[in-house]
Amino acid sequence: MTPQTTFKTYAALNVGERLQPWEYEPLPLKADEIEIRVTHNGLCHTDIHMIDNDWKVSQYPLVAGHEVVGIVTEIGEQVTSVKKGDRVGFGWIRNSCRVCDYCLQGEENICRHGLTGLIVGNHGGFADRLRAPADFAYKIPDNLDSASAAPLLCAGITVYAPLRTYIKHPGMKVGVLGIGGLGHLAVKFARAMGAEVTAFSASANKEAEAKEFGAHHFQKWDSVSEMKALEGSFDLILSTIPSKIDWDIAFNLLSYNGILCFVGLPVSEITIPLVSLVVGQKKVVGSVVGGRRFMREMLDFAALNQITPMVELMPLHQVNEAIAKLLANQARYRIVLVSDENN
């Protein structure tokens, strides 16, 4: 079979524009690459940041989509890790140097020479086909359906990696700040890892769902007296929110040796109370997606424990409507775009 030479996509032709049908001719398939027929895309807020060029790295036309699941249709001559017909996924990382100390231990997310993003200078998954290096394609376990697997490839790994790193033993008290696309998965993973989980949200109407996801406790963020009573209680607080809050409150919730970990970028800088930091031996850390080691482990862990996101399916041709819904905070909790030929 001759590889497809024209890829059909939905692209932003200029910064901030609505996506529209657009076709391009891909570069020839490299020896270490594969081509997939895209079936599903998770819609991540990072896609919108890229469409709007919020980070000043976008190139147009821009084809977003970095939580991609599809079927392998072509393989480069050097590829041995997958075969035609396999179901695989791609996440945020398209490539890395492969040779630095971090890459060699499976932490390509902090490659010393800089990783290559799937949609940074390259076209992503809002398309009928995608080509990318086979080494960053992940086989999807048989008992994970494609719609559930797609959001795990970015949202899932983003929360799994720090939870896997900092949850040292069962019974640790973990707070998840923000119950959205990332937060609801964090609750599920933390519960499965044996933690005692508290979900924090500004939306009281999320309590029932948070407990269905596995939270032992739910706390409305702005309940001042109740928050005061929880001070010094948590071994780990994972912040998944991009909005501005009183970070002193979050920091005061930590116990001795407690960790405040950011995976969502707040809209402003934060100040850290140094006396509490030093005397309490507390830590403030960040975490960004995850490398191949944790990605493979996360997919297996999710399959074994049946950890799946709550998803809403929409056809790819309604991608602009899906983006509007996400921006209006109406997604519950991850929109997955199904490629048009699969509808």
UniProtKB/TrEMBL annotation:
It is an enzyme of class 1 (oxidoreductase). Keywords: Metal-binding, NADP, Oxidoreductase, Zinc. InterPro entries: ADH-like_C, ADH-like_N, ADH_Zn_CS, CAD-like, D-isomer_DH_CS1, ER, GroES-like_sf, NAD(P)-bd_dom_sf. Its EC number is 1.1.1.2. GO terms for molecular function: alcohol dehydrogenase (NADP+) activity; zinc ion binding. Residues 16-337 form the Enoyl reductase (ER) domain. Its cofactor is Zn(2+). Pfam families: ADH_N, ADH_zinc_N. The keyword tRNA-binding does not apply. Belongs to the zinc-containing alcohol dehydrogenase family. This is alcohol dehydrogenase (NADP(+)). It comes from [Phormidium ambiguum] IAM M-71.
